[in-house]
Write a sequence for this structure.
């Protein structure tokens, strides 16, 4: 017994050091696990609040760029709207305003208050949380393309797993319908990688990549980027480099998309598993 | 000033400086200085180390909270905080009896330089290795370690130079 006490006396600093290191390692492992990361994240009231305060000031520096982006997006949407009205008029049918009857997605606007893009596992923080109905695993996009997926939420803030995170996998497709998986190799924040595209798919440089809609998170047809490099060597995963339309180093306002039918889809999928 | 208040303020100042200023530097797109580790160099040497280890860990963890990095800052700064005494013995030849009178500023520059460079490189390597979290892209890890260390060291010696002139 005395020897044991003596042992602890002698190595108490080392043991204390090991204990703290163990805690740190546990946090690191948990942080990279989408299901388990709960404690250390910037979506809590203190860090989120501080980031929000700083973002409120630094927002003024990018007002012009943000306004231009919003204007571009409005133009795009107005053009869509024009097409839509002409179509419905030409079809000569009654447009039913079924409020939320056939609606599949709702959109919430939010602002990025903390942006990371230079690491291998990047996360962003936005200034909306569970108070406005956000939840885990919702799509985050902006006018130019996809941004990420929500993962940790507090009442007023949410942490987003960026598409620039080595753990992110997103279903994406070419405009002609062939689909694969979008991931990131952790190197350049302007390009992401599209893998598992079938070999017979006709891919050309400059082709547009969009979300495939084969998951319950992203609606289909949201823009991602364009093909810049095709690796034609006989690699297993058939990597295609995609240049993002979004400049991930400068994003301000974003939209969070909630899938109203996600529970139903998940329920079905889980039932099939069992 | 009271030592406790001084180090309390230094703690908060270093967290805010790192999170809101230095994390946004991104020189050439990815090179960041990590100046908060000067806490390890400035904290006085004591025989009892529990408080110092705990504070270093807390400092790292605070920065992890802000930068969504799990515990990589906590892990790296705790490592250099624990091995600080070993390197002081190795480079500066100081033992337990010297601790109360030890001042890093009064040491000869060459010895001090070795001590600080070693700890900085160790910290940055652990940091980037854990941030990368795989054995791929190791060249990237080494390059990042090198560039960021140089950046941190320049900032460190500049700030020491500026603040010691006033005394």
């Amino acid at each position: 017994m005395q020897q044991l006490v003596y042992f602890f006396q002698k190595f108490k600093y080392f043991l204390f050091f090991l204990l703290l290191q163990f805690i740190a390692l546990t946090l690191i492992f948990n942080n990279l696990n989408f299901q388990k990361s709960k404690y250390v994240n910037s979506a809590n009231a203190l860090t989120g609040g501080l980031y929000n305060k700083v973002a409120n000031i630094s927002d003024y520096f990018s007002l012009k760029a943000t306004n231009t982006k919003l204007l571009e997006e409005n133009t795009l949407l107005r053009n869509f709207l024009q097409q839509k009205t002409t179509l419905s008029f030409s079809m000569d049918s009654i447009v039913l305003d079924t409020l939320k009857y056939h609606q599949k997605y709702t959109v919430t606007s939010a602002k990025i208050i903390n942006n990371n893009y230079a690491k291998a596992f990047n996360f962003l923080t936005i200034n909306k949380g569970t108070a406005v109905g956000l939840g885990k695993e919702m799509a985050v996009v902006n006018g130019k393309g996809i941004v990420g997926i929500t993962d940790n939420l507090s009442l007023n803030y949410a942490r987003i797993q960026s598409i620039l995170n080595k753990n992110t996998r997103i279903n994406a497709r070419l405009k002609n319908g062939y689909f694969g998986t979008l991931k990131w190799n952790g190197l350049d924040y302007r390009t992401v990688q599209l893998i598992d595209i079938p070999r017979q798919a006709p891919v050309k440089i400059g082709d547009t990549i969009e979300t495939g809609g084969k998951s319950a998170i992203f609606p289909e047809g949201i823009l991602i980027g364009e093909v810049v490099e095709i690796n034609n060597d006989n690699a297993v995963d058939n990597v295609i480099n995609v240049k993002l339309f979004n400049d991930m180093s400068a994003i301000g306002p974003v939209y969070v998309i909630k899938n109203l039918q996600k529970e139903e889809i998940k329920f079905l999928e889980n039932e099939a598993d069992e | 000033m009271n030592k406790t208040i001084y180090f309390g303020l230094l703690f908060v100042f270093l967290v805010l400086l790192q999170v809101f200023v230095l994390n946004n530097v991104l020189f050439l797109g990815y090179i960041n200085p990590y100046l908060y580790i000067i806490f390890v160099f400035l904290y006085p040497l004591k025989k009892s180390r529990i408080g110092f280890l705990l504070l270093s860990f807390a400092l790292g963890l605070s920065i992890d909270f802000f930068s969504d990095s799990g515990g990589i800052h906590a892990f790296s700064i705790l490592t250099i905080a624990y091995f600080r005494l070993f390197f002081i013995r190795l480079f500066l030849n100081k033992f337990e009896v010297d601790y109360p009178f030890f001042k890093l500023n009064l040491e000869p520059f060459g010895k001090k330089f070795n001590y600080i460079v070693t700890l900085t490189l160790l910290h940055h390597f652990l940091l980037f290795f854990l941030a990368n979290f795989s054995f791929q892209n190791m060249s990237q890890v080494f390059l990042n370690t090198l560039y960021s260390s140089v950046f941190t060291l320049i900032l460190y010696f500049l700030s020491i130079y500026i603040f010691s002139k006033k005394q």
About this structure: Chain A touches chain B through 40 residues (CB under 8 Å).
